[in-house]
Design goal:
Structural class: mainly beta
Number of helices: 0
Distance between the termini: 33 Å
Strand content: 35-45%
Length: about 80
């Protein structure tokens, strides 16, 4: 399972992982520490969905629906941008 550090960008499929209907991917940023639920054997990741207001609570996304995780690039020392 990938690492879900706060600030990482994620791309995920909304809904259940075994849903076979065609779905569009969503993007967002990991907003907190993932939580494992032993009752369902599922890891949930809090994601601030792109396009939602920042003051809105993050969505809880199943880790097994995440298809890509990218660590934010850090500026090189002395770089200006």
């Amino acid at each position: 399972m990938p690492e879900f550090d706060v600030g990482c960008q994620v791309i995920y499929l909304p809904g259940e992982p075994d849903d076979t209907t065609r779905r569009l991917c969503r993007r967002g940023v990991v907003a907190g520490t993932p939580v494992f639920d032993p009752g369902t054997d599922t890891t949930w990741v809090p994601v601030q969905v792109d396009g939602k207001p920042g003051d809105q609570d993050p969505d809880w996304v199943r880790a097994d629906t995440v298809v890509d995780v990218r660590t934010p690039q850090r500026a090189e020392p002395g770089a200006h941008g």
